[in-house]
Design brief:
A six-stranded mixed β-sheet has the order 2-10-9-4-5-6, with no helix packed on it. Strands 12-19-18-14-15 form a five-stranded mixed β-sheet, with no helix packed on it. Strands 1-3-8-7 form a four-stranded antiparallel β-sheet, with no helix packed on it. The longest helix has 27 residues, at 233-259. Strand 7 (72-75) and strand 8 (82-87) form a beta hairpin. By secondary structure, it is mainly β. It has helices spanning 7-12, 218-221, 233-259, and strands spanning 17-18, 25-29, 34-41, 48-52, 57-61, 64-65, 72-75, 82-87, 96-102, 108-117, 120-123, 128-132, 137-144, 153-157, 160-161, 170-175, 180-185, 194-200, 206-213. The termini are far apart.
Length: 270
Amino acid sequence: MMESHNPYWEQAFSQPFFDNTTKRDVTTTVGQGAYLICRVRNLGDRAVSWIRKRDLHILTVGLQTYTNDQRFQSLHSDGSDEWTLKIGSPQLRDSGTYECQVSTEPKISLSFHLSVVVSKAAILGNPELFLKSGSDINLTCQVVATPDPPSFIYWYRGPNVVNYSQRGGISVVTDKQTRTSTLLIARAQPEDSGNYTCSPSSSDPASVLVHVLNGEHPAAMQHGNSSSGATPPAAAEALLLVVCHLVWSLAHGLVHGLARGRSPATVSLR
């Protein structure tokens, strides 16, 4: 006579175990909710707890929260094997290791690592830009230190979104996968001057001050923009050496003349 198998009977006496297919290294940005998903098979009547490793603080047991920090919450649906620790509005200090623990004897646990990073935008080039009237404004913004591509990247001039309908020659090309956005304003005029800001979703913005000038301007030479009126660094250095030599010669002749008893008025350069 062959033995019959009773799935329910076997399940009742089997031990809980973790499903290791879930993601255990989670990265999120400051302020964006984080979710650590722990999947436990054959849980039975045992309880699942979440522990913060750095101080061994019990955050949740089952669906109950055991911390005054209400940003921590346990999520679970009836009949599901998943027990999720939700961390609302995470901060840098929340980075670290968390343990999903099951109340077996002895206890079993699975570690998860959370990294909370500051996502920010960066506009390539100098923070201040000088251009001649009629030149193109070409600004490229890149989003750095972000785990996911931004859902949008907006460009502002001052407090207002760049208005495409205000004039022609304005275009924005955004590539979410490379996390970059380029703003091009063709044939810029002085009225296009202003503070331009790249503002991605879930990231700190970045700004650049743009000056569109009619003709030459001394400030342009101080910010790395080439112009016909700018003195090349090598020429400036040579001029400085000539001036220094002239001053030295004058002082040397003056001292030499005084040493011979001649009045300063009669001292000549050698």
